[in-house]
Amino acid sequence: MKIIPGRFAGKRAVVTGASAGIGYATAKRFAAEGAKVALIARRREPLETVAKEIGAAGGEALVLPADGSIEPEIGAAIDRAAEAWGGLDIVVSNAAIELLGQDDRVDRLDVGIWNKLINTNLTGQFLTCKHGARHLLKAGGGAIVCLGSNVATLGMATNEPAYSASKGGIHAMMKVMAIDYARLNIRVNMVVPGFIDTPMNAPVMKDPKELAYWSNQIPIGRAGTAEECAAAILWLASDEASYCIGTMLVVDGGQASI
User: Fold this and answer.
1) pLDDT, tens digit (0-9, with 9 covering 90-100), for 169-181
2) In terms of DSSP H, where are the helices of 140-225?
3) Can you state the percent helix, strand and coil of the chain, rounding each to 5?
4) 3-state DSSP call for residue 246?
């Protein structure tokens, strides 16, 4: 992916789920293009590694461990980023989990697994947007980019109703947020990844038969990369997307078009 030096110079961004996958790629690219980046995820050690990489490349990052589904934790982390830099300009609400083998057909699904996926994925994004939006309003505006999934609309994640429902909720929430904040100078949009080569999909990527099965369902014939998703996220967060409100930018190699 082509880096655009200085595109986000002076901007202050929060990225959740920044320790791996799409969040990691997004945080590193924001920093490479001039933004100060607050790194949020549950575990400190992976975030420290990301921050060191950003620092070694001349960027600036804050390590802010927090569980996005626990309001006092995520609220305090976002507050600390805003306090450190005098405000925020960009919020990327990305953190999510998938519980393969535990999420199951509805008649077999344990309510504890349902609650864990809804709380982490949907409530976590709600809380990130809630506390992020407070600081964007104080700053006079900004951009929020949520992360959705094709499973919200395609029904493709068989035996994963809780994960699919959590992503469907994010899609609905984003659309309402986009309207609510449009005239308050906050642009709310979404990137919708398809089948992406990230740690979440590692079991599939390591299994030749599974990889071939999923790749053959994609017109371009391969999994996407975290960097390809990051490129879409940065574009929606940039001034180049100034007329995008409630946009769902699909990054899926054509999968949803079949």
Assistant:
1) 999 999 999 999 9
2) 151-154, 161-182, 202-205, 208-215
3) 50, 15, 35
4) coil
The catalytic residue among 24, 163, 181, 213 is 163
**pTM check: above 0.85:** yes
CATH label of the domain that carries residue 90:
3.40.50.720
The conformation of residue 94, written as its DSSP 8-state character, comes to: -
Query: Residue 200 is encoded by which pair of tokens?
Result: 């979440």
Residues in CB range of 123: below 8 A, 6 or more apart: 69
Residues sharing a CB contact under 8 Å with residue 32, sequence separation 6 or more, in sequence order: 3, 5, 57, 59
Quote the longest CA-to-CA distance of the chain: 52
Is position 3 within any domain?
no
Asked if the model's pLDDT at residue 1 lies above 80, the reply is: no
Give me the half-sphere count of Cα atoms (radius 13 Å) on the Cβ side of residue 256: 16
CA 112 vs. chain centroid, Å, equals 24
The residues facing 147 across adjacent strands are 191
- 168, part of any domain: yes
C-alpha torsion sign, points 150, 18, 239, 6: negative
Other Cβ atoms less than 10 A from the Cβ of 230: the count is 26
The total number of structural domains in the chain stands at 1
- Verify whether residue 163 is a known catalytic residue: yes
